[in-house]
Amino acid sequence: MKLADKAVKPGTRSRWAAKPLDRTLVAQAKADGIMNAVAHYTHYGYSNHGPVHENGAEIADPHLTMCVELIGQREQLEGFCRAHGDLLANKVIVYKHLEHWTVSPAGLRQEDADTAELVG
User: Phi and psi of 92, rounded to 5°?
Assistant: First the structure.
C-alpha cells in the first residue's frame, strides 16, 4: 500500500474527495471490533524490487510504502478481508501468528499468544 492510495467510494468522481485508504481501513477495523489497528508510515525504503524512495525534508513522497497492522483472531481477520475486499484489492496482505518473545540474560523464551488476549 502506498501513502497516496485513497478509498474511492463508488460513484465518486474525484480522488481529491476520497479519504486516505489507511485511515479508512483503521476506521473500518474499529467498527468491526478488531482488537488493534495501526497505520505505519515508512520514511525510507522500497517494495517489490522497485526503486528506493525517501521522505524529503520539504516534500513527502506519496510512493513510499505504508502498512496497516491489524491484530485479532484469524477468523476475524479473514472476515475483515472478505468484507472489505474492495479496499484491499491488489494489496499485499501478510498473516503472522502472534507470539510473545521474552529476552533476558538467560536467553530467548518464545510462547504463542493466548487466545483470550485476542478476544475483545
Answer: -80, 130
